[in-house]
Amino acid sequence: MIACTFYSSFAIHSLRLVPAQYIQSRRQLLKIFSLSVIFCFSVVCGNASLKYIPVSFNQAIGATTPFFTAIFAFVITCKKEAPIVYFSLLPVVLGIVIASNSEPLFHLFGFILCVGSTAGRALKSVVQGLLLTSDSEKLNSMNLLMYMAPMAAAVLLPFSLYIEGNVAGITIRKAKEDWFIVFLLVGNATVAYLVNLTNFLVTKHTSALTLQVLGNAKAAVAAVVSVLIFRNPVTAMGMVGFGVTVMGVVLYTQAKRRSKLTAH
């Protein structure tokens, strides 16, 4: 988050890639802070859930994000999609569930954390969509990230230091032993910035629901790339599941296009 603040500030104020925008009202500031808190909540719950439930079960629950997004978009913005769009979400979700072929070990607290993370991720995409496209409070992606990131860092840092103990001291000691970890941390922060920036751009130019559908497609692409690069074994059921997800994404794209044509 600190890296996101630095990179965005440098791109806006030094490189002038996009014009600088300023927070216009207390209401807009509150929305940005809410976005930061929702983001932190989603990430922390998602990571913590992995302590209690298998990754496969985590993925299966996470696949329901498009449904949560559609619900939040309707409740918050009263945006209603065509029935065919909602129907096309079924294979997107079903595919990831099929691909999670290991028998999940149910743990109630882990399940609650994962559902909370999934709902938080959906709510975040809807709120950021409002901030990126609202006529009265519109911010471009880079400016929104510049304002949101330091707020998220301020929320996460005290919890990190309290829960993880002497994490700063351990990081410094490891850096003295091997400077390569500094390169890994900087590289990780840079990629995280690009992920967050493109996340905002996709939301701005498409919709919050499209972002979450693409997120499920990303899982399928990651699996295929993993097989090609690492030659790791994959089950036939897993391939069927990811194939269904990709089919669902194609159906969703076609359904969105048809609904737009019908609207015009």
From TrEMBL:
<dbReference type="InterPro" id="IPR037185">
    <property type="entry name" value="EmrE-like"/>
</dbReference>
<keyword id="KW-0472">Membrane</keyword>
<dbReference type="Pfam" id="PF03151">
    <property type="entry name" value="TPT"/>
</dbReference>
<keyword id="KW-0812">Transmembrane</keyword>
<feature type="transmembrane region" description="Helical">
    <location>
        <begin position="236"/>
        <end position="255"/>
    </location>
</feature>
<protein>
    <recommendedName>
        <fullName>Sugar phosphate transporter domain-containing protein</fullName>
    </recommendedName>
</protein>
<feature type="domain" description="Sugar phosphate transporter">
    <location>
        <begin position="8"/>
        <end position="252"/>
    </location>
</feature>
<dbReference type="InterPro" id="IPR050186">
    <property type="entry name" value="TPT_transporter"/>
</dbReference>
<dbReference type="InterPro" id="IPR004853">
    <property type="entry name" value="Sugar_P_trans_dom"/>
</dbReference>
<feature type="transmembrane region" description="Helical">
    <location>
        <begin position="83"/>
        <end position="99"/>
    </location>
</feature>
<feature type="transmembrane region" description="Helical">
    <location>
        <begin position="56"/>
        <end position="76"/>
    </location>
</feature>
<dbReference type="GO" id="GO:0016020">
    <property type="term" value="C:membrane"/>
</dbReference>
<feature type="transmembrane region" description="Helical">
    <location>
        <begin position="144"/>
        <end position="163"/>
    </location>
</feature>
<keyword id="KW-1133">Transmembrane helix</keyword>
<feature type="transmembrane region" description="Helical">
    <location>
        <begin position="29"/>
        <end position="50"/>
    </location>
</feature>
<feature type="transmembrane region" description="Helical">
    <location>
        <begin position="179"/>
        <end position="202"/>
    </location>
</feature>
